[in-house]
Amino acid sequence: MYVLFWGLVYFTTAFVVHFIIWKIRIPRRQTNALLGIFFATFILSIIFLKPDFFESLYIFVLFTSLTLGYIITYSAIEVDSPSLSLVMAFDKSAKDGLSREEISKFMTNEKLVITRINDLVRDKLIYNDSSKFKLTVKGRRFIRIFILYRRFLGAQKGG
Length: 159
Prior knowledge:
The chain is mostly helical. The protein contains 7 helices and 2 strands; from the N terminus they run ααααααββα. A hairpin with a 2-residue loop joins β1 (126-129) and β2 (132-135).
């Protein structure tokens, strides 16, 4: 019970710090900022409360699981996902629904693709080389994680 309690306290504390910072100013690289806030909060909490080694380890596992789960969820909030945007459009249309033409107008490259490309450039995963976008070294390392995971699952290389 001790581990659950303190893991939740650390996570809630980090969440409150994140919430306050976002109210003041949203950082440009939000995922990096979240990782920094959450793990700095964890480290400071461990330093001040000084639980024993194994309790710290168990709390770290719980805290890391909660943090990474939150960050994955946050990325869906950070930029509208195509599916979420579409469902919200259906919700706004209420009983009238949406025609194919309305859906086509709603789902534009500007909304779906360009925003993601800008995010990849901002996060230095790709760069613009004249008229083409190319992976950076960081981008290649990042994509290898997904390629290995897909191979492990036996999935095709494509999306």
